[in-house]
Design goal:
The protein is of the alpha/beta class. The chain has 19 helices and 25 strands. Strand 6 (129-133), helix 4 (152-163) and strand 7 (165-169) form a beta-alpha-beta unit. Residues 1-17 form the signal peptide.
Length: 597
C-alpha cells in the first residue's frame, strides 16, 4: 500500500529563506475575536459624502488595520489574540472560522464591535494611535487605476505596520480622538513614492501588497508583516519590484484593465503574484497546526489505465486555479464550482493553488482535500507569473536560478499533495524563453509527470501542441497546450459555447490521423444558458445574469454532446495516455519502476 505523504512545514523564522515556504509565517494566538461586517457603520466624510462601511467603507479599512496590528503583536510576543473579519453571508468564511476555533489552545473570545476592540487594543498597547488619510472618491471602476485617485489610504496602510496605528479617514478622526488616540501621522498629502523613499529600510523586503486605495480587503496581512502597499503600474511600482528580494511574493492585484502588463511587469523582475485583492483573514488562515499534518489529494494510479484502448480522449480543466481569494471564499460551496452537484459526475480537472493554500489557506486546503470527488484531478498552479518573462530584466544566470528555485518549491508541494501535474500561463507559449522555462521545470522537478500550458491570449492558442522536455533521468516529460476553450462570447476558432466545442471535438477526433488526445480549458467566469438546441451562439450569456451558469455545468453540457467514441478522462489520465502513445518504451519502463516501488 502506497505510503501517505504528509507535509510538515518548518516554522523557524531562521529557516524561512531556505525552506519551500514563500508566505510569511504567523505565530499561533491563544484567542480569536470576531468582528462582523454587518456591525460596520457608514461614515460621513468632511466633503459631505457618506461612505458605506459594509464590506467596502472606512470602518472596514480601520478593522483591517486593527486585525493586522493584532496579528503583528502575536508574532512579536506582545499579544495573544487575533481578529477574524466575518462575512455573515459567506458560507466559506463562516466554516473556516468554525474550524480554526477547533484548534487546540485557541479560545473563542466572542464577537466585538469595531470601536470597542480599538478601545481594548489601545489599552493593551497594541494600538498606539491612528494614521489619518483621505477617502478615495475618484470616479471609475473599482480595481482599475482611476484618474486622480487618492493614494493616501495605501500610504496609511504601509505606515500602520511600522508605527502601530490604525488607519482612519477624515470622517473617523473625531471618533478616534474620543477614544484617546493620538495622530501618529497625517498622510493626506502623501504619495506612495514618498512612503517608499522615506521608509524603505524598515519595510518587509520579501513581500508587497497591490491594492486599490478604495478597497479594504487583504490589508491585514500587509500591516501584520510591514509590507509596502501600492497600486498602478507607474512608479514607484518598478522601483519597489527592483528593490524586493527575488523571488518576491506579490499579494493582491493591480489595474484590472492591464492584467498582461501587470503580470509581465512583476514577472520580469523575478516575482510571483497571488491574486488576493478580495481576500480576508489571511493572517488567521495561515495558522498551521503541526499536530495535524496535511494529507494529499487522491493519487492517480496510471497502472489502472487500459492502454490497449486507443479511443480519442479529451480532458476538461477549470481555469483560474492561481486565484487564492476564490479558494477562500466563493469556491468550495459555490454551486457553479466545487460545490456543484455535478462535480464528480464526469472526469474533471481542477486548477488549484494548493501550494499557497498549504501555507495560507490551511482550512480551505483541508476541506477541499476531504471532499474531493473520486472522478477529479487537482493540478497545481504555483502562483501567477509568466515563465517566459520570469527574471527577464535580470542577468541570465539569475533568471535560471529563479526558475530552479521555484522548481524546488513546486516539487515540494507536488509531493505533499500527491500529484505530478502543474499548469501555468505563458505570455507566448512557444517562445524560446518559454521553452527554456519548461526545460528547467522538467529537469528540476523529479515528481513531474506533465505540464499543461495556457497561452495568455487566447488560452487555446497552442492548439494542443506538445513539447517534450527531458527530466534529470533523461525521461521525456510532455508540455501540453490547451486545444479548446469553453468561453462565452468568443469568436476564436477553437473557443466558444458547449455546443460549439463539442462539435469541434467530434469532428476533429473523427478526422484525426494520429492519436487524438486534447484538453479543453473551462473559463471559470463565462456565463452560459442551458440550451440543448444546435445553435452555437444562443448559449452565450453574461456571468451570473438571467439564469446563466458557469464552471462545472456548462462543461457537463459539452461532455453530454460528445460522440460515444470520445473518451472523457481526467488531466492525469490524459497525460499518461499521451506519454504511452508517443514515448511507449519510456513510459512502460517508468510504470514498471512504479510497480517495483
Amino acid at each position: 500500500m502506497m505510503k501517505k505523504l504528509f507535509l510538515v512545514l518548518c516554522l523557524s523564522a531562521s529557516a524561512f529563506a531556505e525552506s519551500s515556504r514563500w508566505w510569511p509565517e504567523q505565530a499561533m494566538p491563544k484567542g480569536l475575536v470576531t468582528v462582523e461586517t454587518s456591525d460596520m457603520k457608514p461614515v460621513m466624510e468632511p466633503c459631505g459624502k457618506s461612505v458605506t462601511s459594509l464590506n467596502m467603507g472606512p470602518e472596514h479599512m480601520m478593522v483591517q488595520s486593527l486585525a493586522g496590528l493584532a496579528a503583528q503583536a502575536v508574532n512579536d510576543g506582545r499579544g495573544d489574540e487575533m481578529v477574524y473579519v466575518n462575512l455573515w453571508d459567506n458560507t466559506d468564511y463562516n466554516l473556516w472560522r468554525t474550524r480554526v476555533l477547533e484548534y487546540p489552545g485557541i479560545e473563542d473570545r466572542g464577537v466585538s464591535k469595531p470601536w470597542k476592540l480599538v478601545e481594548r487594543y489601545a489599552r493593551l498597547g497594541i494600538v498606539k494611535g491612528y494614521i489619518l488619510y483621505s477617502w478615495d472618491f475618484s470616479e471609475g471602476d473599482i480595481t482599475t487605476r482611476r484618474d486622480n485617485s487618492d493614494e493616501s489610504c495605501n500610504v496609511a496602510t504601509t505606515l500602520a505596520g511600522l508605527l502601530g496605528g490604525i488607519i482612519v479617514s477624515e470622517g473617523q478622526e473625531a471618533q478616534a480622538k474620543a477614544f484617546g488616540l493620538t495622530c501618529l501621522a497625517d498622510v493626506r498629502d502623501k504619495t506612495e513614492q514618498w512612503v517608499f523613499d522615506t521608509y524603505r529600510s524598515e519595510l518587509n523586503s520579501k513581500s508587497v501588497l497591490l491594492q486599490d486605495p478604495a478597497v479594504p480587503n487583504n490589508r491585514a496581512i500587509a500591516v501584520a508583516h510591514r509590507m509596502m502597499t501600492m497600486y498602478g503600474l507607474e512608479e514607484p511600482t518598478d522601483q519597489v519590484f527592483q528593490w524586493l528580494e527575488k523571488p518576491g511574493l506579490v499579494f493582491g492585484w493591480n489595474d484590472g484593465r492591464k492584467e498582461g502588463e501587470s503580470v509581465s511587469q512583476l514577472s520580469r523582475q523575478g516575482h510571483i503574484i497571488v491574486p488576493s485583492n478580495w481576500a480576508l483573514n489571511l493572517p488567521v488562515l495561515s495558522l498551521l497546526r503541526t499536530d495535524e499534518p496535511q494529507q494529499p489529494f487522491h493519487r492517480f494510479d496510471p497502472k489502472t489505465i487500459d492502454f490497449s484502448d486507443h479511443s480519442p480522449a479529451v480532458a476538461f480543466y477549470m481555469s483560474d486555479g492561481d486565484n487564492v481569494q476564490w479558494m477562500l471564499g466563493g469556491f468550495a460551496h459555490h454551486p457553479f464550482y466545487w460545490g456543484s452537484r455535478l462535480n464528480g459526475a464526469y472526469p474533471l480537472g481542477w486548477g488549484m493553488p494548493f501550494a499557497d493554500l498549504m501555507q495560507v489557506g490551511v482550512e480551505p486546503y483541508r476541506y477541499l482535500q476531504e471532499t474531493q470527488p473520486q472522478n477529479t484531478s487537482v493540478v497545481l498552479m504555483p502562483g501567477y507569473f509568466f515563465p517566459d518573462a520570469l527574471g527577464d530584466d535580470l542577468p541570465k544566470e539569475q533568471r535560471l536560478a529563479l526558475l530552479k528555485q521555484h522548481s524546488a518549491r513546486i516539487e515540494h508541494y507536488l509531493k505533499a499533495a500527491g500529484t505530478g501535474l502543474f499548469s501555468f500561463i505563458s505570455m507566448n507559449y512557444d517562445s524560446p524563453a518559454a521553452l527554456e522555462a519548461y526545460a528547467m521545470f522538467a529537469e528540476n522537478i523529479p515528481s513531474l509527470t506533465g505540464m499543461m500550458v495556457i497561452d495568455y491570449s487566447p488560452y487555446e492558442e497552442g492548439n494542443g501542441q506538445i513539447f517534450w522536455m527531458k527530466n534529470a533521468n533523461g525521461i521525456d516529460i510532455p508540455v501540453v497546450s490547451a486545444k479548446y476553450a469553453l468561453w462565452a462570447n468568443q469568436n476564436h476558432e477553437h473557443s466558444g459555447t458547449p455546443v460549439k466545442v463539442a462539435r469541434l471535438i467530434n469532428e476533429e477526433s473523427a478526422a484525426a490521423t494520429e492519436p487524438f488526445y486534447a484538453w479543453t480549458i473551462i473559463h471559470a467566469w463565462s456565463g452560459f444558458y442551458e440550451n440543448w438546441a444546435a445553435d452555437e451562439d444562443e448559449e452565450s450569456g453574461a456571468f451570473g445574469r438571467d439564469g446563466t451558469q458557469a464552471g462545472v455545468a456548462p462543461a457537463y453540457w459539452c461532455v453530454k454532446r460528445l460522440n460515444p467514441s470520445v473518451r472523457v478522462v481526467t488531466p492525469d489520465e490524459l497525460i499518461w495516455r499521451i506519454r504511452m502513445a508517443y514515448r511507449p518504451e519510456q513510459t512502460k519502463s517508468v510504470l514498471k519502476l512504479h510497480t517495483d516501488n
